[in-house]
Design brief:
Among the domains are: 2-94, Winged helix-like DNA-binding domain superfamily/Winged helix DNA-binding domain (Arc Repressor Mutant, subunit A); 125-259, P-loop containing nucleotide triphosphate hydrolases (Rossmann fold), CATH 3.40.50.300; 272-355; 368-540 and 548-553, no CATH class. The protein contains 41 helices and 15 strands. The protein is an alpha/beta fold and 895 residues long. It is elongated.
């Protein structure tokens, strides 16, 4: 069957274009033959699937994948089809005019002499086209890449393509161990005998008049001899061109280099049809189909196949070897077993070169041709995970010519290099790194290399301390987050039996800003606890580090509901050590933290004591920011004490002073971004002073800013302490629902149990407003118990007022009054006053609802006390609520 430039040979299940074979998968070929056998007829999706996959259940997504491949082979488009049209939701029709051939269909064009047959190629179209075009302009090009990436396959496709020499000579140098034998191998392939001692000259003269492409495959172990010979031949044979494959460039005169990338990996691990866009997955599926006799990628398998291809770095040989194991292992099992990739990937094709039959053999081939110095460098670099900087590479290498060693390994394709605006970064492919790590361990070099890595990271984080404190993440001079894998490995080694625990202690201290800037609280707590345990067993060994570790141990108090002692005890220890060694900075930090603890425990009178102490210490500090932080602490404490106008004025002045200096400098040193924490209390004060609209705008702007700087702790703080409560107090339930959901979302991955409990309490108020008083009471009791156990009772009096209203709705008036009295007693004892008028208002409502003799008089008296308290504090918002209740009370009397 012929149509356009194409011929179908059904007996061979082959598609030819102008007599040349078009690569096409067997399923796509079956679809084409079936449709072309019924020209002009609509074949439904179900009919096509039954014909192509008989007795097999296949989703229609698989059909679309093969139709897409078929359109690509035919250069057919879905928008303007020439050959196959689609009726959406129904099926496909072959629309081209068929002509019967007058002669037997031509056979595929023969492969040029000397060119070995190769497998089907995936995802190399761009490289093949680029190399082909460069060979037209240049006479020597080397395809460079790591072992197994597909250099020979691409070279074979280039040599078989159009537009190049009519003659092709393929010379395999993989078995040539001496540079002097390269010329002999080429002469042997040419079938020429040398008449002189100048073998290179004889080859050049033999080729002088021939238009030929000489392909030299696997030059890496004889690269020097190949380079010299290539130059000699090209000088004497002007019509000859050379295409070489090697793991490093020849560095010959006139050479162009094409570094072959790994096969493209999927951008997502979603559905099968999305994964099949990736050449790496296409290769895996094709090899799996060949291995199993029949295989179609399913949605269930797709994430596992994507994981396999990604963990094998898109290396074609490794993917082929992995697919070859499916005779004895499932795809999920294969994915989970790749941690021991050298054991799993051991069964290549019997006809493959020995070095391509197992992954280890491929890497052995690359490793054995290295110099002793290069071998040492490669194994030492294996301690680095992911991308690393040149400085990191230099730091872990023990050789005196570390920079040259790194450059040499890049040239030999054993280390990948990526040049960016911030500098060049490097990486070992995972398979190479695992192989090199085995060699390092076998040579007893792991501990020394890990010690150098740990020491490097300690120095790097110490130098970057101020940057981590002050700069936005987007403005970091390097991607410090990418160091986390190396940091974890270095800390695990340091505290292992063969490690250096004191180095581990100091590395832990140096990495604290990074842990907190990335909000890795749980991980930080584990590291800090481990380091403290080591120092506690060795009193006096390093008091400065012990002080810093206890300071860090105090920080997770905001979420460690099961261990509130981490707060006061840790910071009290920090303050004591800081005073003993004269560390003014940590005296400030500890005083600040003890103030935070007092505020969180709703003890503002004690909090003001710490705030004033901080102010005294701050005035003696060389850092002008400390005095500004002290002003923020005092302004916040004034709010909790009910002095809202003073609080507002103090915080506005603090923000003006703060803005005049470098913004954000203390976002980590004092746990939260200081602009965010100041604006939280400013918004609350504005609301209480009657500026509801301004307060809500302030809240939203602060939420947006905290999101912009990408500091999860600060964002969670503004949601919990301002956004959620002010939305509820303003009657903006729509806003409250969104803010509560956002609070849960931003804290669920951080185990921030306190803020989860806050979210439960805020949600309980919405439940009460929906008329579900019993459910509201249950939710409040559980969440308030969590907060009390953690020592976070900052909002407990307000939550008690909501709980009292819920009890009143259930006619449990006596219990409701007792709850409000408990809150009022706490206020009298602690000095807390911010919601004191609201507590009196709620008590009046409960008393009136309970009824009985004198209920009206008692409720009126309590409301008068609430109004007087609100007036004394200039709390206009509470006054509005009290006046509303007074009107409701009078209306009830009228009834």
């Amino acid at each position: 069957m012929q149509f356009g430039p194409f011929t179908i040979a059904p007996g061979r299940r082959a598609l030819l274009r102008d007599g040349k074979l078009v690569p096409l998968g067997s399923r796509a070929a079956d679809i084409l033959i079936f449709l072309a056998s019924h020209p002009g007829e609509l074949k439904t999706n179900a009919e096509i699937v039954r014909h192509v996959w008989p007795n097999t259940f296949v989703e229609e997504a698989n059909l679309r994948v093969h139709i897409s491949a078929l359109r690509k082979a035919l250069d057919d488009t879905q928008k303007e089809p020439k050959f196959i049209t689609n009726v959406p939701g129904r099926g496909y029709t072959f629309i081209a005019d068929l002509a019967s051939p007058t002669s037997p269909p031509p056979k595929p064009a023969p492969v040029p002499a000397g060119l070995p047959a190769g497998p089907r190629i995936f995802g190399r179209e761009q490289s093949i086209a680029l190399i082909s075009s460069q060979l037209v302009r240049s006479r020597l090009l080397t395809i460079v890449g790591p072992g197994g990436i597909g250099k020979s396959t691409v070279a074979r496709a280039v040599a078989a393509g159009e537009g190049l020499a009519g003659e092709v000579l393929w010379v395999d140098l993989s078995e040539v161990a001496q540079s002097g034998l390269v010329a002999t191998s080429i002469a042997s392939a040419l079938g020429t005998l040398s008449r002189t001692e100048d073998l290179a000259g004889d080859i050049a003269r033999h080729l002088a008049e021939r238009d030929i492409l000489l392909v030299l495959d696997s030059c890496e172990q004889v690269v020097d001899g190949t380079a010299a010979l290539a130059e000699a031949i090209l000088r004497g044979a002007p019509a000859t061109r050379m295409l070489a494959t090697s793991r490093e460039p020849l560095r010959a005169d006139g050479e162009r280099v094409h570094r072959l990338p790994a096969l493209e990996l999927p951008s997502t691990a979603g559905r099968a049809r999305d994964a099949m866009i990736s050449p790496a997955v296409q290769l895996f599926v094709e090899r799996a189909d060949a291995c199993l006799g029949s295989y179609e990628l399913s949605d269930a398998d797709a994430p596992h196949v994507v994981d396999i291809c990604a963990r094998l770095d898109g290396i074609a040989l490794a993917i082929e070897l992995a697919a070859g194991r499916l005779e004895t292992i499932s795809i999920p099992g294969l994915a989970s077993s790749l941690s021991d990739c050298f054991r799993v990937l051991t069964r290549g094709r019997r006809t493959a070169l020995p070095r391509h039959q197992t992954l280890r053999a491929t890497l052995d081939w690359s490793y054995t041709i290295l110099s002793a110095q290069e071998k040492t460098a490669l194994t030492e670099l294996s301690v680095l995970r992911g991308w690393f900087s040149g400085d990191a590479g230099m730091a872990v290498l023990s050789g005196t010519e570390a920079e040259d060693d790194l450059a040499s390994l890049v040239a030999k394709s054993l280390v990948a290099a990526d040049t960016q605006a911030m500098g060049t970064r490097y990486r070992l492919l995972d398979t190479t790194r695992i192989y090199a790590a085995e060699k390092l361990a076998a040579g007893n070099g792991t501990d020394a290399a890990m010690a150098r890595l740990a020491a490097y990271l300690q120095r790097r984080f110490e130098r970057a301390e101020q940057e981590l404190y002050s700069a936005a993440v987007a403005e970091w001079s390097e991607d410090f987050a990418s160091q986390m894998a190396n940091l974890r490995a270095a800390l695990d080694w340091a505290f292992s039996p063969a490690g250096d625990p004191l180095l581990g202690v100091r590395l832990t201290v140096a990495s604290l800003p990074l842990f907190f800037r990335l909000s890795l609280l749980d991980e930080c707590l584990v590291a800090v606890t481990r380091a403290i345990a080591y120092l506690e067993d060795r009193p006096g060994l390093d008091e400065r580090s012990r002080m810093k570790l206890y300071a860090a141990l105090g920080w997770p108090q905001m979420r460690a509901t099961d261990a509130p002692e981490h707060g006061i005890a840790a910071w009290s220890t920090t303050l004591r050590i800081a005073e003993e060694i004269g560390d003014a900075d940590h005296q400030l930090r500890a005083t600040w933290a003890l103030w935070v603890d007092a505020i969180n425990r709703a003890e503002p009178r004690l909090g003001m004591t710490f705030a004033e102490k901080f102010g005294v210490l701050a005035h003696a500090s060389a850092d002008p920011m400390d005095a500004i932080i002290g002003k923020r602490m005092r302004g916040a404490t004034l709010h909790w004490l009910g002095r809202h106008q003073e609080s507002r004025d103090e915080l506005r002045q603090m923000l003006r002073d703060y803005t005049s200096l470098r913004a954000g400098q203390h976002s980590i040193r004092f746990q939260f971004d200081q602009r965010v924490t100041a604006r939280i209390i400013l918004a609350r004060a504005m609301w209480l002073l009657g500026n509801e609209d301004g307060a809500l705008r302030e809240v939203q702007e602060t939420v947006d800013y905290a999101s912009e700087i990408r500091h999860t702790l600060s964002l969670s703080n503004v949601l919990a302490e301002a956004a959620c409560p002010l939305a509820l107090l303003s009657g903006r339930d729509d806003l409250a629902v969104g803010y509560i959901a956002s609070l849960r979302e931003h804290t669920k991955a951080l185990s921030l149990d306190v803020w989860h409990a806050y979210a439960d309490c805020f949600e309980a108020e919405l439940v009460l407003r929906a008329g579900q008083a019993e459910e509201s009471s249950r939710q409040l009791r559980a969440a308030m118990a969590t907060l009390e156990g953690a020592g976070f009772t900052l909002f407990q009096t307000y939550f008690q007022s909501v709980a009292a209203l819920a009890l009143s709705e259930q006619a449990q008036y006596a219990e409701a009054v007792r709850l409000v009295e408990t809150a009022l007693e706490h206020c009298r004892r602690s000095g807390e006053r911010w919601c004191l008028p609201e507590l009196f208002r709620v008590k009046a409502r409960v008393v009136f609802a309970a009824g009985g003799e004198g209920a009206l008089a008692r409720a009126t008296e309590i409301l008068d006390l609430a109004a007087a308290t609100a007036s004394e504090d200039d709390a206009v918002a509470w006054t509005h609520r009290i006046d509303r209740d007074r009107r409701a009370l009078h209306a009830a009397i009228g009834d």
